[in-house]
Amino acid sequence: MQQKRGDVMTNVLKLKAKITEKGYTVETLARAIGMNKSTLYRKINRMEIFTIKEAYKIAIVLDLTESELNEIFFGIKVA
User: Fold this and answer.
1) Most exposed residue of 22, 42, 52, 57, measured as fewest CB within 10 angstroms of its CB?
2) What does the buried/exposed string (b/e) look like for 20-49 if buried means 16 or more CB atoms within 10 Å of the residue's CB?
3) Of all residues in the chain, what percent carry a pLDDT higher than 70?
4) How many CB atoms lie within 10 A of CB 50?
5) Nearest-angstrom CA–CA distance, 73 and 51
């Protein structure tokens, strides 16, 4: 499942997997990045898109590699 708005795509399944893998829930991740949990739910459920700043905050909290960040939030698969 991917969200597309213009050139911005979010790999929602991979994001959800990383959230779980790193021991977070949507609620705890929202708190860690300073976002309302309802807002994060809307973004994950493709009702709104993530800003670049939000993507980087999530990447820091979830300790994503640059490759994972690009693949999840920008639709770029780096080999």
Assistant:
1) 52
2) eeeebebeebbeebebeeeebeebbeeeeb
3) 84
4) 21
5) 9
